[in-house]
What we know:
By secondary structure, this protein is of the alpha/beta class. It is built from 8 helices and 11 strands. β2, α2 and β3 form a beta-alpha-beta unit. α1 crosses α7 (204-217), α4 runs parallel beside α5 (138-157) and α6 (175-185) packs across α8 (234-245).
Amino acid sequence: MMRVLVTGAGGFIGRHLVTSQLTQGHEVRAVDLSSERLEKLKQDSALEAVTCDITTRSKLEEVLTGVDHVYHLASAHLQISLAKFDYWRVNVAAVRNLLHLAHCAGVQKVLHCSSVGVFGDVEKLPADENSPCHPTNTYEATKLEGEQTALRIANELSMAVVVVRPAWVYGPGCSRTARLLRSVREGRFFFFGAGNNLRHPVYVADAVRGLELGLERGKPGEIYIIAGENPVSLKVLANTVAEIQGVPQPR
Length: 251
């Protein structure tokens, strides 16, 4: 049995990861900025839910005490109202603090969850872990800087840190998946051009197992992509959603 810390535990992927870790018999300290999201987690005697702003150094130091492993999922994501400063504060500065404090706390291994968004516009398909990154917005730029910061500090402090880049994760409890289903069902979904641009879906249970394997078996200092077996075009995705729901295909 291990004691693990999951940041961003109240999010879509975080909730599934917490449930999986509890099922495996681990003690989980689940951390999230939103106490409301934490309330949705499965209640278990091995679960400790903590409302915490990861940009607050003193609070971060507190939740890292006595932890064996860390899954760092917390992130400033694609929010229109969020200032650029907040992206850098959460996705970069907080990562720096987390790594230094985890080192001081004696944490054995840290998994830093990044995103395939760091690639930006992919010029040569398929992309792999060695493909060049060309971020196109603040979110992508800060996620790239965050993972580079994590690996740099890990090297300086001789820490075991693994970076994982999930593709588009979908499944139960995903608000984006729900919006896609709803917009196609209500005839409000449309796309520009032929709809040949690609998404690479991965089911949430597979993504969670990938995160766990990244921490269990991942080589420190390495980057790993988690994605489903095949990419899918936007047109095929939308038409499949329409067919399953018995509604006209979007145009």
